[in-house]
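Reopening closed ticket. The problem is back. First fold of the pair:
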Amino acid sequence: MYMDKLQKSVEDKLIIANRELAFQKEEKVKRAAELGIANIELAFQNEEKEKRAVELGTANYARSLIEASLDPLFTINTEGKIMDMNNASINVIGKSRKALIGTDFFDYFTEPKKAREGYQEVFAKGFVADYPLTIKDHKLTDVLFNGSIYKDEAGNVLGIVVVARDITEQKRVEKELTEAKIFAELATTIAEDAQSKAEAAMRIAEDAVKAKQQFLSNMSHEIRTPMNAIIGFTKVVLKTELSAKQKEYLTAIKMSGDALIVLINDILDLAKVDAGKMTFEQTPFKMAMSIAAMLHLFETKIQEKNLELVKEYDNNIPEVLIGDSVRLHQIILNLVSNAVKFTNEGKITASVRLQSEDAENVVLEFAISDTGIGISENKLDKIFENFQQASSGTSRLFGGTGLGLAIVKQLVESQGGETNVKSKIDEGSTFSFTLSFKKTKEAAEIENGLVEVNREIKDIKVLVVEDIALNQLLMKTLLDDFGFERDIAGNGKIAIEKLQSKVYDIILMDLQMPEMNGFEATTYIRNVMKLSVPIIALTADVTTVDLAKCKAVGMNDYIAKPVDERLLYSKIVGLIKKTTTVKLEENVMNETKKSKYIDLEYLMHRTKSNPALMMEMISLYLEQTPPLIKAMKESFDKKDWQTLYAAVHKMIPSFSIVGIHTDFEAMAKKIQEFANSQTQTDEIQELVLQLGTVCTQACRELEEELNRIKTMENE
């Protein structure tokens, strides 16, 4: 029983203990749940702290970026009130942040209305860019207003953010650039005006030079024409039986005429050199023969003064050289003439020696020494200047203009040579010069050396085209003396009529004649009649322009009036010999070949004889050329020099394609030169007519070729 009570007591206690244990376990679960909630709260609080830290960092970063801007920056609400700004805004406006916040944004600009319109434009478009305003600060800062709207998370517009970029420096630079541009334009205008005046002055100067040249040309012709007859007939009469007095008087007349011609030549040569019109030919000639012929001219005069002529020639000099033999003659003529003039006893030495040479060129030194009056040392530096002579009495005692040596110096130096002089009073002088010549294996041109009249040469038929009766009579007399047949034509038109019924070996053609002058007649003879008879121009005007014209129209040579009978004879005989040789060669090589203006060899080479390509090229030429010929003639008639130049310029490139000879290309370029200088002369008219004839004939020949090729293609 006792045991039962004890057992029950233990069980009761055990039940109570279990209940206590269950209660404590429940309490532990409750505390664990509370601890979890506390941890969640703690984690949430930590997360919130981190968010606030990030937001604070972002805000600080954004503020740093805003403050880093040197341009004023504002945030403005929808009512136009300033909400925030950066330090740059504070510095520009000059007020504190506190004073600016809440104030009207538009009041800080010189044009509030314009600022408000810009602000409204931001709300209308969502942004505005480079809107110009001026901040109303102490210096009125110019800015470009750039703005855009900003919104909250719900997308509601809260206001706008504005950046006002300072453009004061930019506007200053723009102003300076504008001013610089204005000044530059002004300077350009001034420069263009100055250039225009300079060009006008140059044109006036060029016109003056041309007028001077034309005047000298006309005067040369007018003086030389009667002088030709005076000197020519004087020479003829001197060959007849005369009394001593008659011979003395006639000799005096001839000397006076010779002196007058020297004076005319000096003045004309000086004018040509001064005007830059002196040109230099590059033709093969025999140096030794050329020098001998020049010295031969002075032999009579040297013998008359009882002087000795010594010739020294270096045999190492090549036989044929390329250069301008005519200008060389002119230089030597002046120097030898001076030597003879100023030497009364002793000798004159003419020497030519080889100074240096290479594979292509030789340099020769020419020297003319005399034992004459000499030149004082203080005059040597000026002796080559215009109108300078050894003393004031030189011209009175010996004659001359003082131009000869000036011309020599310019002729030598224009060809790249040098002049030198050594002299002593009463002992004599040595004038020397150096010139370079090209070596060649070509044969020399017709020699200008004087040939003695050979009475054995007969059957030479000469046509003299000359309008002045006195000159006609002189030429008859000279040609009769040579033993040649001669006919006289009073102008170019009559000459052409005679050529249609009779064959001549050579034509002596005066240049200035009525009805048809020498240039027009030669053009007709060469291009219409297709005659190759040699033509020598008889010119009283030996200016460079005339010589170029002579060559352009097809003349073979020229001789200046007054005519030197020995030179005339030499040129006639030399040209006839050369023409005879050339004709024989041409007859052998081209017995049946017809003379044409075109040669399609180049075109065949370029197209590889492809018929289609050849027809295309020829058709293109036939399409383009006739309008250009028409434009050339019409522009010349209207004196439209610019159009004339352009038309000829377009014609030239096709010459080589269709094989038109380079002589006609040179003619076309000559027309361009005249058109460029806007010079109205007889020559340009003749060249335009001749070029038109050549191109028209070339078109006819090309049409024949085109039809021939088409026929071959169709067969």
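Second fold of the pair, where the issue appears:
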Amino acid sequence: MASKDSDKDKKGSDYGAKDIFVLEGLEPVRKRPGMYIGSTGPDGLHHLIWEIVDNAIDEAMAGHAKNISLTLLPKNRVKVTDDGRGIPVDVHKQTKKSALETIMTTLHAGGKFGGGAYKVSGGLHGVGASVVNALSVYMKAEVCKDGGLYVQEYERGKPKAAVKKIGKCGASGTTVTFEPDPQIFSEISFNWKRVLDRVRQQVYLTKGIKMVVHDERESSSTSGESYGFYFEGGIASYVKYLNRDITPQHENIFYVQKEVNGILVEIALQYTDDLQAREMSFANNIHTPEGGMHLTGFRTALTRILNDYARKNNYLKQDEENLIGEDVREGLTAVISVKLAETQFEGQTKSKLGNPEARGATETGFSDAFQAFLEEHPQDARGICEQVVLASKARRAAKAAKDTILRKGLLEGLALPGKLADCQSKDATQSEIFIVEGDSAGGSAKQARDRRFQAILPLRGKILNVERARLDKMLASKEVKALIIALGAAIADEFNIDKLRYHKIVIMTDADVDGAHIRTLLLTLFYRYFRPAIDAGFLYIAQPPLYKVSRAKESHYAYTEAEKDKLLKELQARKEERAAKSAAKKGKDVEDVVDEEASASEVGEEAGAETSTKGFTIQRYKGLGEMNPGQLWETTMDPARRMMLQVNIQDAAAADHIFDILMGSEVAPRKLFIQGHARAVKNLDV
């Protein structure tokens, strides 16, 4: 008699054709949406818009469309219209259905494979429209073609009826309206600014097209807003826009557009006094954030040409070492755009271009034009060369400073800073470090912490603003050096996240203006020089309470103004409820009982506190030092009860721009930013 285990083994080995499932039509998309749009979060949701807009842009790049409109409608619907040729509606000989239905309901069906309809396109894989259809609870395609208006509607990728001709129309074009499926996306909320930024970018990349964006959502704070975009200068205008709040190092923006071996190369660049590089690369108008062959070709040519020119014109002496890529990219703002017939992207989300021929074409198309630019604009060339040579000297000085810090640490047995109160745990995944403002708060935090896994590093005063200082000057700061050694993973290009000693790095500053400034300085430091720690999700901001509300022996903490008001209402309601019950027992009026309880329970004002409701004491915390260790542990450091904000970067370009405004050397942009956001500031502590 077979045992139960053998029966189980037999059942498990009974694996045959019946266990193989074939997903038909658009079922694979609904089953694994992340494979096609990256995620089902905000990025994937907005990717639906990009797929439809990219199809309209492809018509424009092919020379058949001049106007595109994008409208955010009520009920989470989106409508995209172009004045291109219109999607074909005649019967497709292979599918025996209308070409419109074939495109909208079949993966890898489109006009981008044969090479005749589109020389270049962003929607290479031919899955864009059909994927959006599969992930939409409702979709409608309207096509104006050959004088007829054709319509087809869909539900979760399946046609409701055949394509119908419902009337006549004059011009040609396509309109696609879709509503994302709540079964796929847990939250459906389109970000107006994100949409505007993407549209602006696409119009910069496609000279001569006009794109209008409308917000017709009823409940949106931007409802009724409308923007039109048209840029005659193309990517040269884009560079000017990216540098709008930074001082350029030379007047003229370099620009070239050239076709090399069937690949259209378009590059614009300008150097600024910023210490960071901004390189935006695109292939067929698709942003490639991870770069690829076209970016590699550009960087190679840029380094070679500037080395040759600097040597030839004595900006680099004979005994000085060559410039490297890091030197020639400091302060550089560049947009690199290539358009080619057969693109090889890595994945449907197209983050990196893999075409080897794009490297050679970009290098060739850029080299001759940039050499000519330097010769024809000697003043601009001077500004560029002085910038990159200074960057080279600063890099060597910074390397010497880094080596000194790291070598000193090594010779001293990796001695940790004396001000660091380290934790007992050596497991980085379990360890956390609190970067605290000042010795007073540091002393309180050291007493409050759980020394088994919590380390405290107090910083004295405000650290150096690294947005305005090169790495060599930054490394001269004692506070920065202490932080580098405490983290144990070096800095900048040498930063090794595997050596990081803590996987929770918590910025803990006071809830006032100075605390906010110190927090911004630290965020700037981490964004510029410890970026992998942010990308890995290791950086946090502590959220100490703003208020303590007390009544008799009862205390509560509020972390926001709104939370305090809500708490007071709840406590007042509970007090009145208790008073009502007590009054009923004693046979007295409720008001008399409330007055009796208030006089018996008032505890007076604490330091810096104000009594705003009879019977309650409200204390406003302006500094961590005002809390005793028990309060600090209970409210801010106890993993079971604390609140912390995890720092992440959804839009690196936008973050970079904000840091330039807030921490850069230009005063005017910062003044405009403050004026524009002043009304949003509440309860400012000065």
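Update: turned out to be a display glitch only; the data is intact. The first strand starts at residue 67 and ends at 73. Residues 235-395 form a domain with the Ribosomal Protein S5; domain 2 fold (CATH 3.30.230.10). Please close again.
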